[in-house]
Design brief:
Length: about 325
């Protein structure tokens, strides 16, 4: 048995959760016994020293997470256990802080790899984050871009995505072109609001420092001193992908996110994302993080939904 001591008893209560539900989850997942004999203390009981050490890493990670102003719910506990099992090192390499905004912590080893690539300004100018929905590809890229914008390390944050209909025809909706493409851009504005806060986001938008636009609006531009995010890139054609990748100007970096298995393009029009990944995979200034369903950090059910659809697709291919 070992006893952990903490300075902030209120933070420790938040870690334990209502009715100690977070501690109960750790006990269940790791096979240890946890108790709180006094204020600011947690005791770990278990026969296996390695398991006790793993529980200690999980508890310390969650305590630090709360100290960074982040949440600690069931999904955060499961993520901390996953990171501890992988041997992912503690520290700030997987943390994104947005000054006067929110903080975001990598919750899986691949998210940690992705955040490190985002932060590697010296060696990496183009980052691909590809994989299923819910893996944090866009949110982490937006958060990092927002942090650089607030710190004035870039002049503009530009987020673009193809305006491709996912099975719904919007051509007859009223309004001009800008009004018709707005529904495609709402998820990006939501991510920006999460990172910057609505007031700061609106101010930067009015100043022209934040721009969210359809991919077609990027043609003919050279984007200098900007952080560019190409979201939903599986819906970019080969020509569009080539076009947007060549928009990089002096002092700029780019992140491309998408799920190559979920394109909404016409079957006669191949996606440009798989081609770009193949062509650029060996370039030393390009980083590629390939997320899997185990990296889904939305509702726990989402990972199971992704797995169920993957199995159904495999069965359909075999039949």
């Amino acid at each position: 048995m070992e006893t952990l001591h903490f300075d902030d008893a209120s933070r420790l209560r938040a870690l334990a959760g209502e009715g100690d539900r977070n501690l109960i989850l750790i006990e269940s997942e790791l096979g240890v016994g946890l108790s709180a004999p006094g204020a600011g203390q947690i005791q770990i009981e278990g026969d296996d020293p390695a398991t006790r050490a793993e529980a200690r890493r999980v508890i310390n990670r969650l305590y630090s997470r709360l100290g960074d102003g982040l949440m600690c719910d069931e999904s955060d506990v499961r993520s901390a256990i996953l990171m501890a099992e992988s041997g992912e090192a503690e520290g700030e390499s997987g943390l994104i802080r947005v000054p006067r905004g929110a903080s975001f912590q990598a919750r899986t080893p691949r998210q940690g790899e992705y955040v490190r690539a985002l932060k590697n300004e010296r060696d990496t100018d183009l980052i691909f984050g590809v994989g299923p929905a819910g893996t944090g590809k866009t949110l982490l890229a937006v958060a990092y871009g927002a942090s650089q914008l607030v710190l004035r390390r870039i002049e503009r944050l530009i987020i673009t995505r193809p305006a491709v209909e996912a099975g719904e025809k919007l051509g007859f909706l009223p309004g001009d072109l800008a009004e018709k493409v707005d529904p495609y851009l709402l998820p990006v504005w939501d991510a920006l609001s999460d990172a910057l806060g609505k007031t700061q986001m609106e101010k930067m938008r009015e100043e022209g420092r934040v721009e969210v636009a359809p991919l077609a609006f990027m043609r003919g531009r050279t984007l200098n001193r900007a952080f560019i995010i190409v979201d939903e890139a599986q819906n970019a054609t080969r020509a569009q992908m080539r076009m947007v990748l060549t928009r990089l100007g002096q002092g700029s970096r780019m992140v491309v996110t998408g799920d190559p298995t979920q394109t909404d393009l016409d079957r006669r029009q191949p996606s440009g994302l798989p081609e770009a990944l193949g062509i650029l995979k060996d370039d030393p200034r390009v980083a590629i993080t390939r997320f899997e369903r185990g990296d889904v950090v939305r509702h726990d059910l989402v990972a199971r939904i992704v797995e169920a659809y993957e199995q159904a697709d495999s069965q359909a291919e075999r039949s």
